[in-house]
UniProtKB/TrEMBL annotation:
PANTHER family in alphabetical order: 2-AMINO-3-CARBOXYLMUCONATE-6-SEMIALDEHYDE DECARBOXYLASE (PTHR21240), ISO-OROTATE DECARBOXYLASE (EUROFUNG) (PTHR21240:SF28)
Species this chain originates from: Aurantiacibacter xanthus
Gene Ontology molecular function: any one: hydrolase activity
Short name of one Pfam family: Amidohydro_2
One BP term from GO: secondary metabolic process
Sequence ranges assigned to domain Amidohydrolase-related in this UniProt record: 118-380
Keywords attached to this entry: Hydrolase, Lyase
UniProt-recorded name of the protein: Amidohydrolase
Entry GO CC: cytoplasm
UniProt-listed Gene3D superfamilies: Metal-dependent hydrolases
Length: 400
């Protein structure tokens, strides 16, 4: 039996759970009707509207469900029927849900790809409004338990400006680039100041998966078909593959050894083969060092696997495959998550899920994965945790 504090490193606060005044109250009055607001029609669901765009659904208005649901969330599985309380968006209710799940801390990712505007000034102000509310109001309710992840715009100059602003204010441990919609690709030199500032500030960078961008065409074609469900398995990896390889191919992490990167909710089982292949390609470069000598040489001095273990972390919810790959990931780089309250979430069953998938493992190793590694990465003092889980691990049996 292991008693330890759980830190979930991938949890969510989506647009549908944000209080309606969060953005408009922190944006300039000059935007008028363009400012983000919730439209609540007499009939039909409520929606976020901003700058002429529909940003998405808002759960604050009760909508009667007609017939079975095609997709269940953690709230459905946990017996939460009334979403109008916006539980994920109200820190006291979220903390109660964390207590129910025996989880001490959440690393909270904000709305993915929800801020949509062609106006750069409007976009920058909307991102800043969310980030300021996140740290000044939301996480301030329990700063040792709610670890907010700032949102960065998906263009390098705007991302740098917001990152610089956050670094000056202080209090930001991690910032997220929604990598599936970032332009241009990371090989572009315009991203160099962002990586330089990340290294200087010590703010952790993250890439998080999204099911929205560039997925619509595939889903629309098969809408209403059970087969569409399987497309997630493809999209989660394909969103990350190009930027992940770019980190090594163009020397981004090698040039910036102080940058720490979390790849979140993209799965961890595919990573070892890719890193192994990158190591092989690195060997092939140096095998032909004489050829490259008169072309400027080979700037890639470190093996990709060495850079990976030094700088990259990965999250997972429940994965026997990942547990079989812990030697590859090493003792410090795996981060457990509950994914609250998304459809893939294991809330409110985190403890039995950990017992089922990690019960055969060494308790010390489990303690690092479910909380210790996060504490080291984010500077958390788990000795102060008042919520601790009792895990049935260290058993001589195979994972289920």
């Amino acid at each position: 039996m292991l008693e330890t504090a759980l830190v979930s490193c991938d949890d969510h606060l989506d647009l549908n759970m944000l209080p309606a005044n969060v953005l408009a109250d922190r944006m300039s009055a000059k935007w008028g009707e363009r400012a983000p607001r919730v439209d609540i029609p007499d009939d039909g669901p409520a929606s976020w509207i901003a700058d002429g765009n529909r940003w998405g659904f808002w759960a604050g208005k009760k909508v009667e469900q007609k017939g079975p649901k095609p997709l269940l969330t953690a709230f459905d599985r946990g017996g939460v029927e009334d979403l109008t309380e916006l539980r994920a968006g109200h820190p006291k209710l979220r903390l109660a849900d964390m207590d129910r799940d025996q989880v001490w801390a959440h690393v909270v990712y904000g709305p993915v790809t929800s801020i949509k505007s062609e106006d750069p000034e409007f976009t920058a102000e909307a991102y800043a409004a969310y980030n300021d509310w996140l740290y000044e109001d939301y996480c301030a309710e329990a700063p040792d338990r709610l670890i907010g992840v700032a949102m960065l715009p998906p263009q390098p100059e705007m991302a740098h400006a917001e990152l610089e602003r956050l670094a000056k204010k202080g209090g930001c441990r991690q910032a997220n680039l929604q990598i599936a919609v970032c332009e241009p690709r990371l090989e572009d030199k315009r991203w160099e100041p962002v990586f330089r500032l990340l290294e200087e500030s010590g703010i952790v960078l993250s890439f998080h998966v999204t099911v929205f961008p560039k997925a619509g065409d595939a889903f629309d074609k098969y809408k209403g078909s059970p087969g569409a469900t399987f497309l997630h398995a493809k999209m989660f990896i394909e969103q990350f593959l190009d930027p992940f390889v770019d980190l090594f191919a163009w020397g981004l992490l090698e040039r910036h050894p102080g940058v720490k990167l979390v790849i979140a909710e993209c799965g961890a089982g595919w990573v070892p083969w890719v890193v192994e292949e990158l190591d092989y390609r690195h060997h092939r470069l140096w095998e032909c060092a004489d050829y490259w000598a008169d072309k400027g040489g080979v700037p890639h001095e470190m093996k990709p696997s060495e850079i990976f273990k030094r700088q990259i972390y990965g999250t997972f919810q429940q994965s026997p495959t990942t547990m079989a790959l812990t030697d590859f990931w090493g003792p410090d780089n795996l981060l457990w998550a509950s994914d609250y309250p998304h459809p893939d979430s294991i809330w409110p069953n985190s403890v039995p899920t950990i017992n089922r998938t990690m019960g055969h493992m060494d308790p010390a190793q489990v303690a690092r994965i479910v909380g210790g590694n996060a504490a080291k990465l984010y500077g958390l003092d788990l000795s102060k945790a008042t919520v601790r889980a009792r895990l049935d691990v260290g058993n001589d049996r195979a994972a289920a």
